[in-house]
TrEMBL record:
Belongs to the universal stress protein A family. This is Universal stress protein. Residues 1-144 form the UspA domain. InterPro entries: Rossmann-like_a/b/a_fold, Universal_stress_UspA, UspA. It comes from Sneathiella marina. Pfam families: Usp (PF00582).
Length: 144
């Protein structure tokens, strides 16, 4: 297992706190950070060729927006701190995608911020953090 930590960011305050926590840990332990932004996406939404073409265009726009608006500013902070890092932007089911990337990079830990959402959606489908805690093969830190 590598000395690396996967940190999920999304531009929220919770994501920022997770990045700060992971940065502090990386500085102390010399860990490499894998910074990931997952764009929630279902592969089963569209069927027609026109809808798929539109979907492809939208996916490219979302990746560009996530990269320039969230991931690149986070990378600039890490670079200024001298922390080794890689960045990843993916579409998919958030918890499943985070686990797949954690396995790909052989990380020791996943760090995610708590968003504090409540309501019927969370009751029915659960939270990303809750799903990760129950299914991740590596320890998960949920930063409040």
């Amino acid at each position: 297992m590598s000395n690396s930590v996967l940190v999920a960011i999304d531009g929220s305050e919770g994501g920022n706190r997770a990045l700060q926590f992971a940065s502090d840990r990386a500085k102390l332990g010399g860990a490499k950070l894998i910074v990931i932004y997952v764009i929630e996406w279902s592969p089963y939404t569209f069927n027609t060729p026109e809808e798929n073409a539109e979907r492809h265009t939208r996916r490219e726009q979302e990746i560009e927006r996530a990269t320039t608006g969230v991931v690149e500013p986070a990378a600039a902070l890490l670079k200024a701190s001298g922390i080794e890092y890689e960045t990843v932007v993916r579409h998919g089911a958030p918890a499943e995608t985070l686990i797949n990337i954690a396995e790909k990079y052989d990380v020791q830990q996943i760090v995610i911020g708590r968003r504090g959402q409540s309501g019927i959606k969370t009751l029915l489908f659960g939270s990303v953090a809750g799903n990760l805690v129950q299914t991740s093969p590596v320890p998960v830190v949920v930063v409040p």
